[in-house]
Specification:
Elements (H helix, E strand, L loop, with lengths): L2 H17 L11 E2 L6 E2 L7 E5 H7 L4 H4 L6 E3 L10 E3 L15 E5 L2 E2 L13 E8 L3 H4 L6 E7 L7 E9 L3 E13 L3 E12 L4 E2 L10 E15 L2 E14 L5 E4 L18 H8 L9 E2 L7 E16 L4 E17 L12 E21 L3 E25 L6 E25 L4 E24 L13 E23 L2 E9 L5 E2 L18 E2 L3 E13 L4 E20 L5 E20 L7 E16 L17 E13 L4 E12 L2 E2 L9 E2 L2 E11 L5 E8 L7 E6 L3 H4 L3 E5 L4 E9 L1
Length: about 750
């Protein structure tokens, strides 16, 4: 079935569901913090998608990777390192392996901005809600929110004792245990919440080497503690401490397209080196779109990480308004390497790896309140400091007796320190009961310093040559200031219909290239390391939020036009050299819609849907003018989801049964900047199913979960591998999961 036909069927289903809707119970109001103050979703003049804790538990969602299927405009590029996970909002992201660049999408957990976005991409548990803010959000969320924000809010402590636990066992020997407990320690004064998670499963990519474990497994555990202190009505403080540890054999792709024999292999001085087709045939692996086989020794793949930190949020009332202070300290350590050529029986490129640790401190102080009963405001100051030390190594064992020689181990030591400060404010002028004008601005100062040392050395006897140019050492410093902001006009046509019009300009500071591939020949200024200019997005957006059918149908839509100047990205230049470059201008236009429907005529049914259309193109690219007017990589035009959750009573004892179906998918995309046909990813539709039964008041719940019910083979991302450097044809792929089954028992107390 074509993607167009899938979209047509989805649209028909949505129209029929609305057409048959009778008078129904009202949809519960959703509270968001998209403007750093609590307001209802239907009144917030921001394009934001919200998934609450119930959606996570009912859908069995545990990671950001699963979340993206249900949010129009949000996507994630899974690659072979968690240091650069590449979250995208409306097709925009900073996709780079360099620790000197920040993400374009800010990840915020309980009010704390994560300096490296992967710190916030661990298991989601004990969730109050996750808000996806789309478009530049720098006015209130800072310099690394130039494309959007993933705002995670975890459950707060409660004074009434309670909690819950769920246990899951499923395919690939998945064992998932999550729990939370809360209660008061001192009546109405001190309360706690303790939440934890253990998540383990075997590898989902088959390892054909005898005696070796399957690849892309998971072994992680996490713990979070919260204390809430409320000595009086004007003050409360929340102390949060968390710890996460991972030990995985992750993340490897499989071979999709096998290139022709390479003459250079015949002259290889090291052993063993095989033609790719011969190496795969010797292992019984067939390349292709459904290939789920690799052959890698356990000793050649590793991903270990620790993330931990603490934060203190204090809220207290004053005559000027409410003051909020958030002080946070975090540390993240990761050690990862993998067999870059994906084969242990052919030594072409056996190791790409990095050890990295970063420490960050942040302080936010803001004041929110009201002036003369018709001006609402949020203003504050923000300080951030992050120090990162990393050691990376790339080994290319392939050795030739003639140029380019190869036979080289490249080792890079690097240090990056990022310090920034900002003053921000946003004022809502309530001109009348129906019309508001919102004006916000942010002044940002940023200083980035980097030290870098790269040394290439031979692996075996004979000549060698660096893959990335000569040995390089440098110390680079760059600072910048910026004024960004937004203007929003909001109008309430009636109690159930609101529209808004937005102009917004964001900012993400300059980046210093400290990747192994940093090339001194491309220096923007003295110091020894390349510098990329700041990233500046500009957004024009028209949004509408509806409450229809006696408040039983909620529909939120947005139409947008967004440009990004100097998008920081990885690309090949006109000489075919892969490096970090600035794309002079990207244009992203599209339409998004979120729907919730609760019909009374079918008591117990809830329908949610999302639909997005996105057109993202390269408008100006001085380093690659041949790519101008072409689509940006890895961005499908259409994304869609439809979920139906139906619950009914069993007898009169308070027991209920439920069924939940999910249909999610996307249209065709190409994951190569040059639009290479071998990097085409066909459109696909996934079907998930949940069946279960619950006791009175849902004290106990048993759920059967099936993901990818039709066992669809689909890749997330297609790219060139180590062998592609030899034959310019070979392609590898990161595959989505096959059909999986799981049984979950949840208990509340």
């Amino acid at each position: 079935m074509s993607t167009l036909n899938r979209l047509r069927r989805l649209g028909v289903c949505m129209l029929l569901l609305v057409w048959v809707a009778p008078v129904a119970a009202e949809i519960e109001e959703i509270v968001v913090t998209a403007r750093k103050t609590e307001e209802s979703l239907s009144e917030s003049p921001v394009a934001v998608s919200v998934l609450d804790g119930e959606f996570f538990s009912d859908g069995g969602i545990n990671t950001i990777n699963e979340l993206v299927r249900f949010v129009p405009g949000l996507d994630l590029t899974p690659i072979n390192t968690t240091r650069a996970t590449g979250p995208k909002v409306r097709g925009i992201s900073t996709f780079s392996f360099s620790d000197g660049f920040e993400s374009s999408v800010a990840t915020v957990v309980d009010g704390v901005v994560m300096g490296r976005e992967a710190q916030g991409f661990f298991d989601l548990y004990g969730i109050e809600s996750v808000e996806i803010l789309k478009g530049p959000q720098g006015t209130l969320f800072g310099k690394n929110a130039s494309a959007g924000v993933i705002n995670v809010r975890t459950l707060a402590p409660e004074f009434e004792h309670g909690g819950g636990v769920d246990l899951t066992y499923g395919s690939f020997d998945e064992v998932l245990a999550r729990g939370t407990v809360t209660g008061g320690l001192i009546e109405d004064t001190l309360a706690y919440r303790l939440s934890g998670s253990i998540n383990q499963h075997d590898g989902k990519i088959d390892n054909v080497l005898p005696g070796e474990d399957d690849i892309n497994d998971k072994d992680t555990w996490s713990l979070r503690g919260k204390l809430l202190f409320t000595p009086n009505d004007n003050f409360q403080a929340t102390l949060i401490t968390d710890y996460v540890e991972e030990d995985n054999r992750c993340c490897l792709p499989t071979y999709r397209v096998i290139g022709p024999p390479t003459p250079a292999v015949l002259f290889a001085l090291n052993s063993p080196v095989l033609q790719l087709a011969d190496a795969l045939a010797a292992l019984g692996i067939e390349g292709g779109e459904d290939n789920r086989d690799v052959a890698v020794a356990d000793s050649r793949i590793l991903q270990e990480s620790e993330a931990y930190g603490t934060s203190l949020q204090m809220d207290f009332g004053t005559s000027w308004g409410e003051v909020t202070s958030i002080t946070a300290w975090r540390r993240w350590e990761i050690d990862e390497f993998n067999e870059a050529d994906g084969l242990s029986n052919s030594d072409v490129n056996n190791r790409n790896g990095t050890r990295s640790d970063s420490t960050q401190f942040s302080q936010e102080l803001r004041l929110s309140g009201q002036i003369n009963n018709n001006i609402d405001f949020v203003s504050g100051i923000f300080y951030f400091n992050q120090e990162l030390d990393a050691f990376g190594r790339v080994d290319v064992e392939f050795a030739l007796p003639f140029p380019p020689f190869f036979n080289v181990s490249t080792a890079v030591d690097r240090r990056v320190e990022n310090e920034s400060a900002a003053v921000f404010g946003e004022f809502t002028f309530n001109v009348s009961e129906d019309f508001s004008l919102i004006v916000g601005a942010r002044y940002t100062w940023e200083d980035v310093e980097a030290d870098y040392s790269r040394v290439a050395s031979p692996i075996g006897p004979g000549f060698f040559a660096s893959n990335f140019g000569p040995d390089l050492a440098g110390s680079q410093q760059v600072d910048d200031t910026d004024v960004s902001g937004r203007v929003i006009a909001r109008y309430f046509w009636n109690d159930n219909f609101m529209t808004y019009l937005t102009w917004s300009q964001g900012y993400k500071g300059p980046g210093i290239d400290v990747a192994e591939s940093a090339n001194a020949g491309f220096l923007a200024e003295p110091g020894g390391l390349p510098v990329l200019d700041p990233e500046v997005p500009t957004l024009y957006e028209l949004g509408a939020k509806f409450r229809l059918l006696d408040n039983t149908l909620s529909l939120n839509t947005a139409v947008f036009y967004q440009t990004v100047e100097d998008l920081q990205a990885i690309a090949t230049d006109q000489f075919g050299i892969g490096r970090n470059l600035s794309i002079d201008e990207i244009l992203s236009t599209g339409v998004e819609a979120d729907l919730i429907w609760v019909p009374a005529g079918i008591e117990g049914l809830t329908v949610t849907a999302g639909l997005g259309y996105l057109d993202t193109n390269i408008e100006d690219f001085s380093d690659r003018p041949d790519l101008e007017d072409k689509r940006f990589r890895d961005v499908p035009r259409w994304t869609y989801s439809l979920s139906g959750d139906y619950r009914w009573a069993i007898g009169s004892g308070g027991y209920h049964a439920f069924v939940r179906g999910e249909v999610v998918g996307q249209s065709r995309k190409n994951t190569n900047l040059d639009d290479d046909p071998t990097a085409d990813v066909d459109g696909y539709t996934l079907v998930n199913l949940r069946l279960g039964i619950s006791s009175p008041e849902e004290r106990y719940r048993l759920t059967l979960m099936v993901d990818n019910l039709t066992d669809e083979d689909y890749p997330h991302f297609v790219f060139g591998s180590s062998y592609a450097a030899l034959d310019n044809t070979t392609r590898a792929q990161f595959l989505g999961d096959p059909v999986t089954y799981a049984l979950q028992l949840a208990v509340k107390f």
